[in-house]
Amino acid sequence: MPSPAGADTGAPVAGVPGSSVGPLSGTLRRGAAIATGMLVFTQLVSLVQTLVLARLLAPAEVGWFAAGTVLSGFLTTFAEAGMSNALVQREGRIADVATTVFWATLLAGVGWAAVALASAPLIAWIFSSDIVGAIAAVSAGTIVLHALTYVPDALMQRRFDFRERLIVRPVVALTFAGTSIILCINGFGVWGLVIGTYCSTVAWLVTAWTLAGWRPGADGGKPSFALWRELARFSLPLVVWTVVNRARDLLETAVVGGALSATALGYYRYGRRLGSLPETAVIDAGSYVLFPAFSRLAGDPERFRSAFLRALGLLWGLMVPVAGFVIAAGEPGVTVLLGEKWRGAGVMLVALAGIGPGVALMAVGMESIKGTGRTHLLNWVTLFTSVLGICLLFALLPLGLTGVGLALSLSSVVAGVLSLLLARPLAGVTFGELTSRLGPPVLVAAPAAIALGLLEHLVSHSDQRGFLAGVAVLLGEGVGYLMLYAAGLALFAPAAWRELSAVVRQVRHAG
Description:
This protein is mainly α and about 500 residues long. It has two domains: about 40-55 and about 260-510, no CATH class; about 55-235, no CATH class. About 80% of the residues lie in helices and about 0% in strands. Helix 2 runs antiparallel to helix 4, helix 3 (about 85-90) runs parallel beside helix 7 (about 150-160) and helix 7 crosses helix 9 (about 190-210). The longest helix is centred in the middle third of the chain and has 38 residues, at about 300-340. It is a multi-pass membrane protein.
């Protein structure tokens, strides 16, 4: 059985033959290569699933699902309560910590599932829909299932066990896609999504426990209330941050579904869904490595500083061109892929373009803050960005879905910048060094995105050419855009280009 404490001893990475935990530069590149290679596959599965379901379901049905599951998603945060992060960051008494976290999150999950079930009539009233209320009641059980995944996932992350990305995530994606598509084809409608969610969560649970090789108490670990209180002190700012963001998601869903319509909520859901595909593929591959790596390097200022700057340059350099492409061709792209009835989702996607760069900044800033144990600093990010986000949401709501998307984008970028500024002194990084990492990708991507936008909207018109021809045009435009970005980066920011090229080569080698 793999030892949860393996990460503390520098043991080889489980599931990755011949690997060992080294400096963050090597770990991040290796981890990004392994995780991104499979994440590309996972996101392709999600994309195909999204395209197929968009043809089978009406926007209103997707809106019902979003409304009905928003409460269970929100309460899942309370069940986890930041304990997974505490387990990853912890250095001693790992067996006792793992057992304590297991029982704490399981009991919390059962309690919050009961709350979700009891709240279903309220959800039905808020959205004026009995179907939404029924979905909310049925979805309550997913909170308990998610609670059972936290410890095995955290233990694998502690020891840089990338099988969580190589195996667990693809199994989850394939299970949901296969189940939901088959059921929707056979007329289950929105309930196909609900059943698919349960099936994929069960698949997640089975594979995670199998790979983690851990059972509560089997390694001698015992739950401890005193230890739980110690973990809770570390986790509290993370819980506040996550709860506030989940609450904003709930508020946004209620506002869009109530003030606009179920169809608008469907556009909102799929716009965010499509926007999260590249964001997840790029950020998740890095942030899964960053937190445990920063935790280990926190006592070595020079290595921590170098790792901070490398991670920032890498994630920012990958996300900025994605945002540029979305702004330039997002609306026609969604229309080509999903059909004319989903054009509103394309509008939403364009307005959400700022979320990716914001998350890239947060991935570096917040993970480094967590790695050094200074989680209290996150309270400033939570307070400022939550107030700003809510104010922007209501101020821009008269613009419809575009206003909602812009509010999310702006608050995400502000949260990223603020977390980066708070992390800067911890990493010993100067403002000049930050500017040298953040400036060149923006200066290179902007003219390339402008050229792409002019080509698409004045000449190509991919959304007027049918599915196959439209996809071909978009692919051609995407390749040309990336070539322009790569050439500009190689010319004006050679250091950033070398770092990105190294990761791309390792991803190709891993594939």
